[in-house]
Write the structure tokens for this entry.
Amino acid sequence: MQATRQQILDELRNSGRVTVKLLAERLRLTPTGIRQHLAVLERDGLVEAHEERGHVGRPALVYRLTDAGDALYPKKYDELATGLIEEARAVLGPATLQRLLKRVAGRFARPYQARLEGRPLQERLDETARIIGERGNVAQSRWCGGDFLIEKHTCPFWSVATRNSAVCALDVEFVRQLAGADARLSTSLLRGDDCCTFRVRPGAPISASPER
């Protein structure tokens, strides 16, 4: 990253929203030079501008970071999640940790239930694969040897799962609740397979949902 553009990003990160005039004053550059750098950052999807009206005069153009720009700064979400899971296992025990993760899966699944209500299993599985895709993964559904399969080729919890494989229970429970049928993990990215495969058996009874 070019040094001046990094300074601009840092100012936006620290202040939230900044005008060209203010950036020019803080970085001791001309407004024209600031605009040139902002144009590059906007082209790259790192900043965005919107008009903001003050008490008098014309609306000012205000810049802020986009989600992509904010993502350039380190986050410690994986470290936090790993620490919480390890402490939960130590304090509550493995069985209670599993129940806790299933409750979290139920929380994740709940907003999608209306989309699946009343649908036959194959449609539910197709819709479940679409929902998994909407959540930032690559997934597909297919029929194989009397079972429905959902194949997920990416893992949203990879860094956490490599340290605590119990996290896989969350994914399995998420699929189980959306499919409305028994689901089992038959292949796993964590074990070196090409994808995580959730095998869903038509007509197989499902265990009771965790308490909500």
Strands lie at 18-19, 47-52, 60-65, 139-144, 147-152, 183-187, 196-200.
